[in-house]
Write a structure and sequence with these properties.
49% of the residues lie in helices and 6% in strands. The chain is mostly helical. The chain has a three-stranded antiparallel beta sheet. The chain has a three-stranded antiparallel beta sheet with strand order 4-5-6. A hairpin with a 4-residue loop joins strand 4 and strand 5 (68-71). Helix 8 packs across helix 9 and helix 10 packs antiparallel against helix 11 (251-262). The structure holds acetyl coenzyme *A. Acetyl coenzyme *A is lined by residues 266-268, 270, 294, 302-309, 359, 361, 364-366.
Length: 431
Amino acid sequence: MTQRTVTLTDNATGKEYEFPIMEGTEGPDVVDMRAFYKDTGMFTYDPGFTSTASCDSTLTFIDGEKGILRHHGYAIEDLAEHCSFPEVCFLLLRGELPNHGQKETFKDEINNHTMVHDQIISLFHGFRRDAHPMAIMCGVVGALSAFYHDSLDISDPDQRWRASLRLIAKMPTIAAMVYKYSIGHPFVQPNNELSYAENFLRMTFSVPAARWYISPKVVRAMNKIFVLHADHEQNASTSTVRLAGSSQANPFACIAAGIASLWGPAHGGANEAVLRMLAEIGHKSRIPEFIKRAKDKDDPFRLMGFGHRVYKNYDPRAKVLRDSARDVLTEMGVIEEPLMELALELERIALEDEYFVERKLFPNVDFYSGIILKAMGFPTSMFTALFALGRTVGWVAQWNEMMSDKVQKIGRPRQLYIGQKSRDFVPLEKR
Ligand code: ACO
């Protein structure tokens, strides 16, 4: 078959340049622009990477127009319904769902690393109690490189695997410690006999002085939330992890960079912002006022939890969460959750509004997750930390994929310089 190409013409010189087209298994083809600068002496311009593929990847496929999300070919709806989070971690790291034996071995491998170095407790005590959980998480995860020297050699696949296991295993422990620290409770050690989700809930909500019980339905919902957040291809935080990793930085530092990027309200911080927004709206009668503000270009207000760079349809993760929310609310004994009613009504009104229809703005994963997490008892400030916990496996899997990809180079975008041209230096006394 002949190689498909794209030809570009510079209409000033009439010169033609030809670039090969690369085809994936699904989704848009890409134009291979690697020789563009060498051939033309020009750069491409694409702020926000709206049309730029930065890598090839086998992990996650999204069809934003149809609202499809798959990991290694498996639909997110099936994974969320039928898999434990560690099974999905195995899938992302190994490319296949584990069989019974592999599942057990992987569980043991994770369990080997659930505790954190005792010295990390001292590190925690250096933070203010009212610090944002993401600020502490960023610091503690970055600091793991100071504790686990036997997983810093990124050229050694065994050390990379150990670092990956450590990160996946320790994130629940760290996230729970962040919460416990903020409320002044003693830290609760992990219990490896429990599932990943239940262990995390126990470390977060149990206290040494009392017996602890959690409904299996709530554990299932927690598991589902982790699965739904596991990976989402080249989003801002994942691209941050890859960019940091492209300089050969150690894995703990790279994941800390991802956590920092996730924190922003345009990304993972939106789940926290959604609850603040719903509280501010307060009542269904005020929805039209806020819809009007969201449409006003002179008002910085945006409908949080709405819109997505890739999805131009209902985010499939939001659909799963919307359907699960009722179960969790009922299980937690919440007969009527005004925020849920408000969210459903807000969604209904927005999806009938021409502004949102025209721009294909639908609820994203953050729109309903906060309502569930709040019902479980998490404070709003923990929401993004829980997103980071679930997403760690995606960051780690993407980082591993990049580390074994021969094509990858240090990430180094170019720019269009629009500043001053060369000028004569002006001494201080003449300025
Ligand atoms: N409310 C009101 N208008 C919106 C919203 C919104 N939530 N989202 C997008 N728009 C409008 C924009 O103003 C723009 O309008 P215009 O064409 O008239 O200028 C148009 O829709 C396209 O939006 P962009 O900002 O260009 O889209 P982009 O892909 O850059 O941004 C983003 C995507 C950041 C998610 C955006 O939709 C947003 O800010 N949403 C709210 C925050 C949010 O929920 N973030 C979570 C994303 S999911 C995640 O990270 C897990």
